[in-house]
Amino acid sequence: MALLDKYAALGAQYAQVEAQGANPFNVTFEAMISATEGRYRGKPVLLLGTNNYLGLTYDPEVVEAALAATRAEGTGTTGSRIANGSYGGHKGLETELAAFYGRKHGMVFTTGYQANLGMLSVLAGKDDHLILDADSHASIYDGAKLGTAQVTRFRHNSPEDLDARLRRLDGTPGEKVIVVEGIYSMLGDTAPLKEFAEVKRKWGAYLVVDEAHSLGVLGATGRGLAEAAGVEGDVDFIVGTFSKSLAGVGGFCVSDIEGFDVLRVATRPYMFTASLPPGVIAATRAALAALRARPELRARLNENAVRLYNGLARLGFALGPEPNPVVSAIMPSPEVAFAFWARLLEAGLYTNVSLPPATPKGLALLRSSVSAAHGAAQIDQAIGMFEAVGREMGIIGADAPIAG
Fold first, then answer.
1. pLDDT per position as a tens digit, 286-329
2. Which terminus of the chain has a lower count of CB atoms within 10 Å, N or C?
């Protein structure tokens, strides 16, 4: 048996996708024109699958901050902060993130994935319990696997099931750490965080909220779902990423817990990964400043999300349960999802195709992510493309209302 024979079935699926002429796992843009436009195979493409929520990737102040820091401090740190030391920007960003969330402590990771990997692998030890929402992101599950805690899943977005799981664990040794997300990345649904906080208080557990897709999107100041739900005081740890609203790469955790800094030497993904380059740190600080100073970006983002969601719903597409910047159209099968995605791309619209096991309930999804940088005309253009392909493939009926 050859080493990679165990992936034969996966390879066959991959070859099947390649045979359709367009592979969602291997799209290469020839040029990026703006936050909302690229060029693919010589033609302009409207970008509706980038998670660039506030549209800050081309913001002049963000770009200039990255350039200035790179010129002054070089392209990389060439090592971890434990080995090579921290730059002033690393500490500055951690201080600014903690202040933004009103917390005492902040820690920056090289990716958002590593923030979950690092924190969840150490917050709960071998005698403790991690209690995860069943639809948690892969990085949350992988963080649980890297650690030694006992892991329990509860039914997605069900405070009742969470309560039942904690009741069964009542009296068992060890701490209980609940992990949920703000906005879930596949269907764009939000957690019932107020109810989860009540369950957390009832059983004396800790609560971790991953605000990756809700930072800059929800809350009066953009701090995420915990702010929007009015339960920030019940959240013990907030983790998140810089690769969505903050237009870069990296991750973080903020908390008020005493002794937080010991996690820097307990968390292997932090200790043994090269730290973020100065340019990325500077760009993230500039993007965070823009998030705080320009609430109109958040307002425009959410207007665009509602416009896209309502437009697709009027046409008869089956969607996630609520309008958020993640808008997913549910397809009848993976094969239909691939074909629909390929036709949209050929027509000039880039979205994401998401398939099981990465999706909840085995759903096949065409996932869009809206940006504040999109104009209303671009959103309407995208709706029109969905309509044309949907009618052509029989996904929506001939009697569906015309977009616009």
1. 999 999 999 999 999 999 999 999 999 999 999 999 999 999 99
2. N
Distances (CA, A) of 324 to 50, 217, 257, 276, 389: 14, 8, 31, 30, 23
Q: Which long-range contacts (CB under 8 A, 24 or more apart) does 98-101 make?
A: 98/254, 100/223, 100/288, 100/292, 101/223, 101/232, 101/238, 101/254
Kindly report the backbone phi and psi dihedral angles of residue 235, in degrees, each rounded to the nearest multiple of 5, phi listed first: -95, 120
Token pair for residue 37?
């436009």
Residue 380 tokens read as: 């309407």
Under a CB-based contact definition with an 8 Å cutoff, are residues 327 and 318 in contact? no
Give the pLDDT of residue 1: 61
| 97-to-61, 120, 215, 316, 367 alpha-carbon distances in Å | 18, 20, 11, 41, 29
- Average pLDDT over every residue of 43-63: 97
| Average pLDDT of the segment spanning 363-373 | 96
pTM: 0.95
Average pLDDT over all residues of the chain: 95
Whole-angstrom Cα distance, residue 162 to residue 115? 24
Q: Which two tokens stand for residue 238?
A: 């907030």
Residue 136's Cβ-count burial label (10 Å; 0-12, 13-18, 19+) is buried
Name 90's bridge partners: none
Q: Report the greatest alpha carbon distance in the chain.
A: 64
Secondary structure element (H or E) that encloses residue 252, with its range = strand 251-255
Q: What share of the chain is helix, strand, coil (3-state, %, to 5)?
A: 45, 15, 40
Instruction: Give the model confidence (pLDDT) of 169-226 as tens digits.
Output: 999 999 999 999 999 999 999 999 999 999 999 999 999 999 999 999 999 999 999 9
Dihedral angle sign, alpha carbons of residues 201, 207, 213, 218: positive
Q: How many CB atoms lie within 10 A of CB 21?
A: 9
- Show the domains of the chain with their CATH numbers: 14-47+295-392 (3.90.1150.10), 59-293 (3.40.640.10)
